[in-house]
Amino acid sequence: MLVLGIETTCDETAAAVVRVGADGRGTILSNVVRTQIEDHAPYGGVVPEIAARAHVEVVDRVVAEALRQADTKAGDLDAVAAAGGPGLVGGVLVGLTTAKAMALVLGKPLVAVNHLEAHALTARLTDGVAFPFLLLLVSGGHTQLLAVTGVGAYAKLGTTIDDAIGEAFDKVAKLLGLPYPGGPEVERRAAGGDPRRFAFPRPLQGRPEPDFSLSGLKTAVRIAADGLRDPSGALTEKDIADICASFQAAVADMVADRCRVAIRLFRERHGEPTALVVAGGVGANQTLRAVLQKTAEAVGLPLVVPPPKLCTDNGAMIAWAGAERLGLGLTDALDVAPRARWPLDAAAATIGSGRL
Ligand code: ATP
Ligand code: MG
Ligand code: FE
After folding, report:
1. For a pocket test of ligand 1, which of 8, 119, 139, 178 has the largest count of ligand atoms closer than 8 A to its C-beta?
2. What global pTM score does this model have?
3. Nearest residue CA, atom 8 of ligand 1?
């Protein structure tokens, strides 16, 4: 089975072809990502209108390139999948409409994939992880711990009560004067810094529910930075590196503590998970990976983190999630609407708008 996946929910225009073999395992035949980072960099964040226009300009070429690299003709596809949300609705509209047009012309099924479900199921593509598993979803817009018991079956164990972790990385980068996108840049600077110089708070540590809070930590970083600025407002490279390292260490500690709580809850409510799985762009962070490796080992669970390129937004995860849904007979009608909001644990994530 060959599935094309199109991703346009944020600032990456991406398309990929994934083949699913008779054994149910997926192979990525192509994975083309055209990032808009340069278009948004001057504004320090994603500008929705610029994003939507940029998707329109390149989506046809990105899809054509994904097919070319996969050595696949559009007519050979078994289905066309696109992210149907959640995300910037102008961008979602571009990818979803492209997929609808292709599905209509080719006479093949359309699958409107939940972008978060695609992040969630990536570990099944890369590592064949079996259900049920504990999912730590840490991306630009979401920070959640979920029990994943099947395709479309997500029970929320904990969530952030304010900012997402990726968003906190981006905001910390901005207040330190680092370029957008902040996450990778904070990680780079942290590599040369002292993680023990600043004792930043570990919010909600010790609480019985695995929820997250980032706003207090962000404020502590702001106060520390403001106390070190020279009269022109600048910080030394050393101060920036130490703040980044200390912030990153606080985030990793917090996440490890919340995961330990979530594993306990998972075992009480859902039995034994097959793995602790990390998904979303923040999963690219090597310090976080190392800390979670120890956390998982301590409780006897394998840690599965897809490679960085499959943690951040990409078309392969959309194609794979599309294939998983198609395998269950879940497809969507051509009038399915793009969604700005689409929570993963809502019933809406479970049922396609049409069944084959
Ligand atoms: P969502 O999936 O919630 O809709 P999104 O698609 O924008 O949001 P992703 O592309 O999954 O999010 O991840 C982007 C986020 O990951 C950004 O906030 C970015 O700063 C963060 N990020 C990327 N690489 C790293 C890294 N190495 N360390 C920390 N954060 C990172
Ligand atoms: Mg992105
Ligand atoms: Fe994402």
Report:
1. 139
2. 0.93
3. 140
